[in-house]
């Protein structure tokens, strides 16, 4: 399946804690943006496209066992950047001549980056890829999101909530989502406990779950997301639930592919250096993405 996506993407295109907190809310509620010192924390822009294979055959409903929904209780829900906050700020103050003034080490950076906020779609890098996927009959692009965050611990990554409802379904032109499926007859596993499923009815091609960028020795990106597919049996709509759990090492400024038989994702991360104080957006992907090679 991934070969199909690669051909679609590259045809005709040259692809090349010490927090200064503003405010924050409880986990699984809206995460309010905050500043971190770039000298102490690496900061990245994360951009992800989630897509499904439209003609992927569903397994036999009599033998297939739905995967459980992933617990989203520890996932951040991000909002767009507050208008009155700079994305990069520098609090360096040059002191007046004073015999009692102690000189500050000029090598020490005081630049701070705003983190944990959602990028507006006008700042996306992978728009060309998204638009190209929209034109494909066999691919259904479901989610396109981007945000800024600090690196988090590999052993305990901070997840960001990822659902298809965060992207306007009206902008998805090649599928319909007006048919609601029946409630999912599943149990949800959370930290070793099995609880009753309270998920609402979900339309066909719904995405739920979370993703995380983390750093141990190397950078890694991990998925815990579900795809809901509906099917008709005995004149009644039922649900199949698939999962993507891949976690692997990645490098900044490269396209990274995560795949399963039914859906996958394309991820790009970009390190925020703070070289441009009023840094608000990046170059479009058409001049910065990878060559036509398999990852």
Tell me briefly what this model is:
This protein has 295 residues and is mainly β. It has helices spanning 2-10, 127-134, and strands spanning 19-20, 30-31, 34-37, 43-53, 75-78, 88-90, 111-115, 117-118, 139-150, 152-153, 159-161, 187-190, 193-196, 206-215, 219-233, 236-244, 247-249, 256-259, 263-272.
Write up this protein.
By secondary structure, this protein is mainly beta. It has one domain. The chain is built from 2 helices and 19 strands. The chain has helices at 2-10, 127-134, and strands at 19-20, 30-31, 34-37, 43-53, 75-78, 88-90, 111-115, 117-118, 139-150, 152-153, 159-161, 187-190, 193-196, 206-215, 219-233, 236-244, 247-249, 256-259, 263-272. Strands 2, 5, 10, 11, 14, 15, 16 and 17 form an 8-stranded mixed sheet that branches. A 5-stranded antiparallel sheet has the order 8-9-4-19-18, with helices on one face. Strands 1-3-7-6 form a 4-stranded antiparallel sheet, with no helix packed on it. Strand 14 and strand 15 (219-233) form a beta hairpin. The protein is elongated, with a radius of gyration of 21 Å.
Q: What percent strand?
A: 35-45%
- Topology, number of strands: 19
Q: How many helical stretches? A: 2
Oligomer: single chain
As a percent range, the share of helical residues equals under 10%
* Uncertain residue segments: 12-28, 166-200, 281-295
CA distance, first residue to last residue: 14 Å
Number of domains: 1
> Over the alpha carbons, how many angstroms does the gyration radius reach?
21 Å
* Main beta-sheet annotation: 8 strands, mixed
Overall geometry: elongated
Strand-pairing-aware structural class: mainly beta
What integer is the average pLDDT? 77
Q: What is the H/E string?
A: HEEEEEEEEHEEEEEEEEEEE
């Amino acid at each position: 399946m991934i070969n199909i996506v690669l051909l679609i993407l590259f045809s005709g295109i040259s692809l090349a804690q010490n927090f200064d907190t503003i405010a924050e809310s409880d986990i699984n509620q809206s995460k309010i943006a905050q500043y971190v010192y770039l000298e102490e924390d690496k900061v990245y822009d994360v951009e992800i496209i989630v897509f499904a294979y439209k003609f992927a055959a569903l397994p036999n409903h009599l033998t297939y066992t739905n995967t459980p929904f992933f617990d989203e209780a520890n996932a951040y829900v991000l909002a767009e950047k507050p208008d009155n906050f700079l994305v990069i700020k520098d609090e360096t103050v040059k002191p007046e001549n004073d015999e009692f003034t102690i000189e500050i080490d000029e090598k020490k950076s005081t630049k701070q980056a705003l983190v944990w906020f959602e990028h507006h779609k006008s700042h996306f890098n992978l728009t060309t890829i998204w638009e190209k996927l929209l034109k494909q009959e066999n691919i259904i692009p479901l989610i396109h999101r981007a945000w800024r965050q600090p690196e988090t611990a590999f052993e305990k990554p901070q997840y960001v909530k990822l659902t298809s409802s965060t992207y306007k379904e009206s902008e998805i032109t090649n599928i319909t989502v007006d048919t609601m499926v029946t409630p999912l007859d599943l149990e949800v596993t959370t930290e070793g406990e099995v609880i009753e499923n309270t998920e609402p009815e979900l339309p066909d091609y719904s995405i739920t779950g979370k993703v995380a960028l983390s750093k141990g020795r190397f950078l890694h990106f991990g998925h815990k997301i579900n795809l809901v597919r509906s099917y008709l049996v005995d004149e009644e709509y039922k649900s199949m639930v698939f999962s993507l759990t891949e976690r692997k090492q990645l490098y900044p400024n490269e396209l990274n592919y995560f795949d399963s038989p039914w859906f996958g994702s394309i991820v790009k991360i970009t390190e925020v250096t703070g070289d441009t104080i009023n840094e608000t957006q990046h170059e479009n992907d058409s001049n910065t993405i990878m060559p036509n090679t398999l990852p």
